[in-house]
Every structure is written in C-alpha cells, then in structure tokens.
Predict the structure.
Amino acid sequence: MTELNFQNNARSGIPENSAGGILHIDLDALASNWRSLRDHAGGAETAAVVKANAYGIGIERAVPALDRAGCRTFFVAHLSEAVRVRAVAPDATIYVLNGLSAGTSPTYAEFDLHPVLGSFEEIDEWASFCRAQSQNRKAAIHVDTGMNRLGLTVPQGLTLRDRAELKDFETALLMSHFVSAEESDNPVNGQQIEAFEAVRSSLPGIPASLPNSSGIFLGGKPPYDLVRPGYALYGGNPTPDRDNPMKPVVGLEARIVQLRWVEADHTVGYNGRWLALTRRRIATLSVGYADGYPRAASARGKSGDELLAGMALVAGRPCPFAGNVSMDLITIDVTDVPEDQVRRGDTVTLIGGDLTVDEVGRRSGTIGYEILTNLGQRYARAYRGGQG
Ligand SMILES: *Cc1c(COP(=O)(O)O)cnc(C)c1O
C-alpha cells in the first residue's frame, strides 16, 4: 500500500485547527496517475474528466496540475464547470458532456468550449449557430450504445453521414460511453464496441473516443483516438477484480473531540442502535454526514459484531464505527487501542491506507465515486505538489 506523504502542504481555505476534518489532496499522485493512464492508452490522447469539481478535489487545483503533466483536453458535465476550467486552462480543449442547453451557444463561443451533442435538436441548434456566425466551431457527437441515457441511438448515428447540418461545424470527436467497463467479462462491453464501430466506420476521418477509466484496462480493441478517464485519476480502482494500479490522491483525517467509557448495556448515538455488551471506550470524531461522509456507514448492532459499516484507523489500528453517523459527529469503538495512543485532539484516518475510497464506498453501501464527489466543504484542504 502506497503511503501518502504530505510534506510541504499548501494549506488552503479553512485553517486546520478550526476544522473538524482535514482533507489531504496529493496533486503529484494525480499527475502521476494521468501519466500512467497515458502509458496504458496505446498512443491515444489521454484527456481528463474533471466534472463535479474534479470528483470533489477542486477544479482550480486539479486542472493546472493535469495541464502541467501534459493533459490538453478536459471533460466536464455542465457549462458552468467548463467556464471554471477555462479560467485556469486558457489553451485547453474543453468538452461539456451533458449536451447543448437551448440558447447557450453564445457562451460556448465566448469561452471557446465544445458541446457534446446528443440529439438531432442539439445538432441542429449548433449547426445553425455556426452557420449564422460563419464559424466552423468544434463539437463532439455522442452515440448511445447501451446506456439509454444520453446521445443519439445507434440507428440515428448511422444516418449522420447523410445529414447536411454536419457540414456547418467540425465534428472533432465521435464518442460513446461504457455501461459496465469495470466488469471486464461482461458481454455488454463487446456489444457496445461492435455498435460503436459500426457508427465509426460510417464516418471515416472523425476521431473516436470510447473508454472511461475502466475501459482503458479492458483489453480488446479500444482505445481509439482519445480516452476519457475520471475516477482512476483520483485514485479509484479501475480494475475492481484486481489490485489497484493507481496511486491514492485523497486522504481524510478527522479530529477526536471527546473520549468516554460507555458501561455495558448502554447504547451509543441516535436511536440507540449500537449496544455495548461490555464496557467500551468510545471516541467521538468531528465529521458527520453533513461533511459528505455517508450516514449509510452507520454501525447498527452490538460491540464486537462484524458489521459492514464504517471504519477508522487509530494509531494504525482499524476501529469500527459504533452507532449511527450523526450530522456533525461519528462515534467509534477504540477499546482495543492502548489508552495512551488515543487522546482528545488526535486525528484519526477515515480515508487512507487500507481505507481506500473504494473500501469506504463498499462499507457505505455505495461506490467510491460517490464518496469522492460528496467530499464536503467544511474540511481544511491540504494540497500537496502539483508543480510539475
Ligand atoms: C464521467 C464520465 C467519464 C469518466 O468516467 P470514469 O468512470 O470516472 O473514468 C467518461 N465519459 C463520460 C461520458 C462520463 O460521463
């Protein structure tokens, strides 16, 4: 397990001693993950997906670090996010995945942004805007090969080459998105590749993009001209059935605000959902669900039970959550940690070491993606590296 090293932190925002938790963000690991994905991408351009505030770590810090690593193309979900990326990456190519909202074309032109067009209405609107401006602006076209969510259907995609509007703008990218790329043996992957290739071969000369993080590791035919990793950049495991090839980017520490002994037959937390069978030592942490730590990680049962619930590392030892996660507090059972190794004011690890974002997601009944993108605004954020 790679150790996070947080020397030379660039502190930002809320001071550490007045925050309930400290979020460590390693921008060197982010850059290193981008380079390692590029090395896996078989010569395809490696873009970066930085939607949702760069999966929680901060667009304004992540994008310059990725830019310095050599990344030239960024994807966001919303137009507002694209404007934020433009402010810190004046020369980058920026795509907006969620499509062209009616009437927003002038904003795309103003900030030199590229929409990902996902319907004939959007294609028509972009084409007429470009025609009116006499400008051959770039856009991507999204073909839906199985998600049934966003993009032209495959039959619609196969009619694209006959549509006159395509001459009014430059289709810089033809893209689709995997349904289950993290399940390498799922037959839907091959079906999507086949459907995408039918559309792609009907539009020769247009660069093609299919893989997300997990798609890069699938094997078989893709990568094509550009790959679109998100999660793996931020340290998530793109190959969940194997060891994680990525470096951890995010660490979370929480402060102990109280320690107490709870007598046998007493409960801990809201609704008394956790019962001490013997006398237990409980540490109260100043992080809760208002910080984005899922309430679904609550530990409901009895002391000593093996529960699928939250966990903290205290002086290197795993300590299970005890009771419901509150809005601003989490209670953990530290009875097994020597008394002098756990004191008021100490910090414990909520994300880090074996508590990876994937593991925290699993223990919370969700996925690591949701853990990252919910990382709250009350933490002190300690950024490290990112200078190249
Ligand atoms: C979010 C997203 C990605 C990135 O996916 P990861 O699984 O995070 O790598 C790529 N392409 C599209 C269309 C997306 O919406």
